[in-house]
């Protein structure tokens, strides 16, 4: 009898997990949606733009490189986007960020999704003590996200819209070679998770989806981690679809690929073993060994 009850419990657990993990994404829900995608010139941002375009959305795309953005816009129109506007913006500059939301409202008449994806360049290496670079990176990777969200929130509240924040496993678990980058991602987690609570308490109908991504095979990521880490990379196209799907479903957190969720779940278990394993995963040979004199 005991085995029978255990079997029933297992079946029930599998059924619940299957329900929670089901794919409810329907591109039709994004038809005519009004979407801002930052960092849209390459990588995951570019792929997200194409997914929204195939669904028939209106798009405002931002990045710093005009020639690349023009190519992305052409492809989005071919894929079925209702309209595509471009805003050249350096996210380290406050005035540039102001223009992004203003352009979106002027061109699309409102806003349904703010997709925050851009990042500033940082080398994949041990911290060299450059405080100015860390300060600049926090401006681009963190403060600019807050600025854009603040400008967009009144319009998103009106449309019952969503903020989608692209973060990283390095924003949940500290890793080598990502000191400043990881700090900016941890900051995003803290701010937007807290803001989500406040919006719910005020009954403001805006959802926030925090997307926790592992290693994705974008050109910039692959160049950085080359010869430094032994870990498989997953397709940017699939990562982008997972982000778009999660934002449309208004889930609080999304994890991609498969290993990210369990790693986040067990991150506080066996801290000494975790630290040893983490340091062994990354390839590093000290240039010299410091010996006390």
Q: Shape, please?
A: globular
N-to-C SSE series? HEHEHEHEHEHEHHEHH
Number of helices: 10
Strand content: 5-15%
The side-by-side strand order for the widest beta sheet comes to: 3-2-1-4-5-6-7
Radius of gyration: 21 Å
Structural class: alpha/beta
Mean pLDDT: 89
Estimate the helix proportion, in percent.
40-55%
Oligomer: single chain
Ends apart, CA distance between termini: 71 Å
DSSP summary, beta strand count: 7
Can you summarize the main beta sheet? 7 strands, parallel
Question: What are the segments in which pLDDT stays under 50 over at least 5 consecutive residues?
Answer: 288-293
Explain how this protein is built.
This protein is α/β, with parallel strands linked by helices and 293 residues long. Helices cover 51% and strands 13% of the residues. The protein contains ten helices and seven strands. A seven-stranded parallel β-sheet has the order 3-2-1-4-5-6-7, sandwiched between helices. α2 packs across α8 (236-249) and α5 runs parallel beside α6 (179-201). The radius of gyration is 21 Å and the shape is globular.
